[in-house]
Design a protein that fits this description.
By secondary structure, the protein is an alpha/beta fold. A five-stranded parallel beta sheet has the order 5-4-1-6-7, with helices on both faces. The chain has a two-stranded antiparallel sheet with strand order 2-3. The chain folds into two domains: 67 residues, no CATH class; 148 residues, HUPs (Rossmann fold). α4 links the parallel β4 and β5. Helices cover 46% and strands 15% of the residues.
Length: 220
């Protein structure tokens, strides 16, 4: 009995690490890997930057991880484009401290936005969210009192479907702007990045399933 289970576990590990099972999982999690169109700015525009965690670098300094850096960059690019046509442009950084590090995601990302020429006066920090659902809930409370004409949601391709579900649940229909997408190295040899991508895809797919179950039960 143990041998068949061990063989199945080894095969499953190889399928994920070599990418053969990770590809369909990732395709389900991020069906649209690129923004369909550039953002359309209105006189009062808010750009919502979703947190993507924090990590400690080799010098034990808390920094944004790779995916979060891309979100920051795309948010700053959208802000610069917004300022060319809109009267009011704001960047709402939504991210608390689910990892219990020394600072929130919002506080950690702030200096990176400032270095990309986003003025502090145009940055709103939402520092209590621990999940994507809480991102949507807390940001909806902010924008509900500010009367923005349009909202732009910036996050990674794998998080966008679940994020849109959560924001729509709170009556918000932002324009999606994908900052980056995960890719798989398909082959015969296992790769650590493929396992990371598989974990991310499963996390998002489970989150989407959970959303629909909770809504069916009336918990949302």
């Amino acid at each position: 009995m143990r041998r068949p289970l061990a063989v199945c576990a080894i095969v499953l590990f190889w399928l994920l690490a070599a990418g053969w099972l990770t590809v369909p999982l990732l395709d389900l999690a991020q069906p649209d890997r690129h923004s369909a169109a550039p953002a359309a700015f209105a006189p009062r525009t808010a750009i919502i930057l979703l947190g993507g965690g924090t990590i400690y670098d080799d010098n034990d300094v808390l920094v944004p991880p790779r995916d979060a850096l891309r979100r920051i960059e795309v948010s700053a690019q959208n802000y610069a484009a917004c300022k060319q046509t809109a009267a009011t442009c704001a960047v709402i950084v939504s991210g608390g401290n689910p990892q219990r590090h020394s600072a929130t995601e919002a506080d950690t990302y702030l200096p990176y936005l400032l270095r990309r020429q986003v003025p502090r006066a145009d940055i709103v920090l939402e520092k209590d969210s621990r999940t994507t659902y809480e991102n949507a809930r807390n940001v909806s409370a902010i924008v509900g009192h500010s009367h923005y004409d349009t909202l732009i949601l910036v996050t990674s391709a794998y998080q966008m479907p679940r994020a849109l579900l959560d924001f729509h649940h709170f009556g918000i229909t932002p324009q999606p702007q994908i900052s980056s997408a995960r890719h798989v190295r398909l082959g015969m040899l296992p790769h650590y990045d493929n396992l990371v991508a598989a974990e991310i895809a499963l996390h998002e797919l489970i989150g989407i399933a959970q959303f629909h179950v909770y809504r069916a039960l009336g918990w949302f």
